[in-house]
Amino acid sequence: MHKTLTDTHGRMVSYMRISVTDRCNLRCKYCAGEALDFIPHPRILRYEEIMDLIGLGHSMGVDKIRFTGGEPFVRKGFADFMVAAAGRFPNMEMCVTTNATLIRDWVEPLSNAGIHRINISLDTLSPEKYEAITGRDMFSTVMENILRCVDAGMTVKVNAVAMHGTNDDELPGFLDFAASNALDFRLIEFMPVGSEPGWSDQAVWKASEILEQAQSLVDLTPSEDNGIRVKGPARMYDIRDGKGRFGIISPYTDHFCGTCNRLRITSDGKLRTCLFSDKTFRLRPALRHPALGLKFVERIIRRAGRKKPIGHELLERMPSGQSVCSTRMASIGG
Predict the structure, then answer these.
(1) What is the pLDDT of residue 310?
(2) Would the pTM count as exceeding 0.90?
(3) 321: left (phi > 0), else alpha (psi -120 to 50), else beta?
(4) Which stretch of DSSP H or E encloses residue 244?
(5) What tens digit of pLDDT does each residue of 253-297 get?
(6) How far out from the chain centre does Cα 270 lie?
(7) What per-residue string of b and e applies to 295-323 under the rule 16 or more CB within 10 Å gives b?
(8) Ranges 131-135, 189-193, 237-241: which has the least confidence
(9) Which of 12, 112, 159, 242 has a beta carbon 3.0–4.6 Å from 179's, enabling a disulfide?
(10) What is the distance between the alpha carbons of residues 306 and 297, in angstroms, rounded to a whole number?
(11) Measured between alpha carbons, how far is 327 from 315 in angstroms, rounded to an integer?
C-alpha cells in the first residue's frame, strides 16, 4: 500500500464520498430547488473511471466509500456497478445514500453482495408534508422501502434535515419511529450550502434545542459499543426500551472539522476537500488524458488533500444570511 494521505492538520483521509449523478427524481427545495441545469452526460464520470478512483483511494488508505447523488439509483446500471465494486474491493466498506424511492428491487442483491449500510433521507413522517417538501407523492413508497431494508438486516440510518418551521413539530414522532424500528434516526442541522433561497440562521433547528426537547420526551442514554462511546459526527443515543437509536449531527453549531477524514468527488469528476468550500480540483481531464491518467490524478489528490481546510473557519467568515458556498447540494453529492 502506498503512503496514506494526511493533511497539514494531522487528519488522515480514509473516507471517500463519490457522487454518481447530480440528477434526482425529487425536488427538495433546500437541496436542488427548481434548478434543472443538470451536468451533460459526457461530463459525468464513467463507471470504469469511478472504479479506477476507488482503486486509487484504496491504495492511499481509503477504506470506506459512500455513493451519493443526486439520487444514485436514477443512474442506469448503478446497483449493478455497486455490487461489482463491492466484489472487486471486498476489504472496503461500501455504503450508499439514497432517498429510497427506487431501491425496492435492489435491497436483496445489495445485501447479498455484502452492502449492508444504507443512509436514507427522509425529512418528515407526514405524507402531506413529504409531498410539499419533495414535490412528489412518494411517502408510502419510501416507508415501505425503509422497512424492507431493516427486514433484510441492513444497518439503516434515516437522516432528516432539522428545520424550524418545517419539521420542528415532529420530534415526538421521530423519537417514536426510532424506538419502534431497528434503525438510527438522525437529525442534521440545516447547513448554509448552496445558492438556493431558504437558509437562514432562524431556520436552523439547533442541536442543543433538539437534545433538550428530546430528553424531556424520552429517556436517552449516550450509545456505547463495548463500553466505548460511539465515535463519528453523530451523537447517538439509546432510547429506553426502544429497538432503534436517536442521533443528532451538528455541523453548524458544534462542528467536527478537527476529525474530518473525508474527500468528496462530484459526478463530473471534481475533487472537493471540504463541503463548505467552493474550491475544487479537476480530476476528469487527467483521467481521460492518455499521457496523464491515474498517476497524475494521485498527485492532484495528494496536493489538494494536504491543504484540506478547516470547515468551521469558513463558516465563521461567512457573511450574515448567506451560504458558505454557492454550489447546490445536489451537485456536490452531500
Answers:
(1) 75
(2) no
(3) left
(4) none
(5) 776 677 888 999 999 999 999 877 788 999 999 999 999 999 999
(6) 17
(7) eebbebbeebbeebbbbbebbeeeeeeeb
(8) 189-193
(9) 242
(10) 14
(11) 15
Cell 444570511 identifies what position? Answer: 321
* The total number of residues written for the chain in this structure: 334
CA-wise closest residue to 41 among 61, 22, 68, 16: 22
> Which structural domains are found in the chain, ordered by start?
15-332 (3.20.20.70)
DSSP notation for 275-308: TT----EE-HHHHT-TTTHHHHHHHHHHHHHHT-
CA distance 111 to 103: 12
- Write out the H or E segment, with its range, that includes residue 212: helix 207-217
* Residue 228: pLDDT band with limits 50, 70, 90: very low
Q: Which of 235-239, 257-261, 279-283, 299-303 has the lowest mean pLDDT?
A: 257-261
Computed over every residue of the chain, the mean pLDDT equals 88
CB atoms within 10 A of CB 149: 23
Q: Residues 172-194: what's their mean pLDDT?
A: 90
Q: What angle do CA 189, 304, 199 make, to 5 degrees?
A: 20
Angle at 128 between CA 127 and CA 134, to 5 degrees: 85
3-class secondary structure, 238: strand
